[in-house]
Amino acid sequence: MSTVRDQREQLPEGRYGRSGHAGSSEDARADRKLKIVGSVLAVVMLGVIAWIGVDYIGGKNAFNGEMIKSKVVSDDSVAVHLEIHKDPGTSGVCTVRALAENGAEVGRKNVTFAQRVDRVDEVVTVRTTSRATAAELISCDAE
Description:
The protein has 143 residues and is an alpha+beta fold.
């Protein structure tokens, strides 16, 4: 009477891979090749992710703006205090907008910063079409 173990040892030729045996040297070589290819791909992927991260962080420091505060000066203007951090040789444009109480835009101004310093602190006046209740720094982009 044959047992299950005896049947496992007599696998049909060609049915389970090249050799039909689980521990053959050809299978070991194929496994080793797959491990090497997988390791190389993982290292390349980590390198690409690191490069993208460094580029993203480095690019962010070239020209950054921050709105410190804003004050409604009159029915037709808003004073906006901006602080810009940039490389000394970099110039750029920041866009500021004034908003009415209902959220509608009532004023917009593009401000160019070309000073050859790394930090600019400036108060900008935005003219409005009606009374504004808030101001917003939309973007700051290097030129």
